[in-house]
Amino acid sequence: MSTFHPVRDDQTGEEVIAVSVGGPALLQNPLLNKGSAFTNDERRALGLLGLIPSHQSTMDEQLQRRYTTFQQKTSDLEKYSHLSSLQDRNETLFYRLLQEHIAEMMPIIYTPTVGAACQQYSRIYERPRGMFLSYPHRTEIDAMLANVPHSDVRVIVVTDGGRILGLGDLGIGGMGIPIGKLALYTLCAGIHPATTLPIVLDMGTNNQKLLDDPLYIGWRHTRVDGQAYDDFIETFVQAVERHFPHAILQWEDFANQHASRLLARYQDRLCTFNDDIQGTGAVTLAGLLAACSVTGQPLTEQRIIMFGAGSAAMGIVGQIVAAMQRAGLTTERAHSTIWLVDSHGLVHTARGQLDPFKRDYARPWDEVTNWQADEAQAITLLEVVKQMQPTALIGTTAQPGAFTAEIVRAMAARVARPIIFPLSNPNSQSEAVPAALLEWTDGRALIATGSPFAPVRYATHTIEIAQCNNVFIFPGVGLGVIATNARRVTEAMFAAAGEALSMLSPARRDPTASLFPALADVRAVSRQVALAVGAAAQAAGLAEMTTADELEQRVNAVMWAPHYVRLTLSKDSTTSGAGIAAKLPDVKVH
């Protein structure tokens, strides 16, 4: 169980945590600080009298105060900064506030607002969170990781800032992504924040706007690449293995040329995964399976266009093919159901110079030789739609408006319930907006988007827009791995996660409902995903075998809920000295 490991008071039955330092330093520790909610007894015992207002607030009062202030902010970026400031002061209250307003606040702490926060990171930066490992200090990574304030780290999210969402190279600004992802681990799966660690590998940036910005706080240098890049990554991984041997290492928002090969290099060496590839693949498979339950046409009979050929697309088609194989198709037959379209048009065998991923999905040239090509001899997305009459269209290109009215209407003319997933985020990069898709398909489209969109009023009813959100997958994967102490993260575990999520789709019970569960239910979803992942890990021999009941108990034990615990001073404590760091209680994992 990842927690501060409170003990029960024999007389009162209360949870109690003994801390080593009180006074001003305690108020500076966001994992322990309660602000005005410290009781009078705690204030006396912990050296807090006079340091906070006399009124003893309840958590409900604190929540009302913070939510009122949140509502008064006039922009999403201001709301993001407000919540970040609260996280830096009082993490328990931060997570309880998010839990109370999850549907409203998740788009603020993560997509789409986190994209703007990453772009403005150097200008809104106030307080460090996580680790900043810069290339000029590459020989000192061990020393830097030794500075992590709590040692039992169980989940690390790392980025090099090379491809943040659909926004490109944001350098050190990419730190907003690991911070946001780990907040979702805690919010959605109960992973205790003391066991999480965001890391940015500052290897420079090729974003000239950032290099020219006098306020940029990253390493002001063009991006390291080639062998020097690989050597730095290897040094980092070795340091993680030494310092945090039981941690999950999640790679996040690495550029396409690095993402898949880093995963391939390290996935059999340590407990690691890439959410952009594997998480995106699993959540998209879940949405597709749910859509198939609505149409009544099984996955094996779908005709799928994958528009985009980056790391996200690779993960999606990989999960789809694996699911088709589990349903009885051969690899060749499964590949034949997918049509890959990249920036140069349809991928086919006559193009040559294709990387291995694209070669696996290249259509035989004699199959498309009579199809119409444009001036650049590319077979366009529109032409592919007209010729092969897809049942599903998935986009990961970050090309806003790429799914045009002509393309969507051509698809809808031949398919009763077209499945359309414009997955690029943030919203500004989406291949289409849901309102337009519903208009062009006469309300028949089954839609899932990458970023959140408001419900759409169509004809006489309101249609909820499903978000194909990785938050339904990766927190539960992490929870399942931690609960079982799994040694690796495998494709089979992600397949189990995707299928478990699909079975929770509201559309399976009501064809007019969303393809994905409501965000308000995400903790329950993460729990079910964790059980499926844990069982898959055990079946693969990667975790200790337990009964189903014991597995459930282990998952439940890991899930922390944000609530205040009574604090007392330990015997070797001090309540003086604002410059002395408040020591964290022992973190124990059972």
Give the helix/strand class. Answer: alpha/beta
- Overall strand count: 17
What's the tally of helices?
Answer: 25
> Helical amount among residues, as a percent range?
40-55%
Low-confidence segments? 577-582
Arithmetic mean pLDDT: 94
Percentage beta strand: 5-15%
Q: Based on CA inertia axes, which overall geometry fits?
A: globular
Question: Main sheet?
Answer: 7 strands, mixed
Q: How far from one another are the termini?
A: 5 Å
The radius of gyration computed from the alpha-carbon positions, rounded to a whole number of angstroms, is 25 Å
Keywords:
590 residues, alpha/beta, seven-stranded mixed sheet, five-stranded parallel sheet, 17 strands, 42% helix, 12% strand, globular
Task: Give structural notes.
With 590 residues, the chain is an alpha/beta fold. It contains 25 helices and 17 strands. The strands form 4 sheets. A 7-stranded mixed beta sheet has the order 10-9-8-11-12-13-16, sandwiched between helices. A 5-stranded parallel beta sheet has the order 3-5-4-6-7, sandwiched between helices. Helix 20 links the parallel strand 11 and strand 12. Helix 4 crosses helix 7 and helix 10 packs across helix 22. The chain is globular, with a radius of gyration of 25 Å. The termini are close together. About 1% of the residues have low confidence.
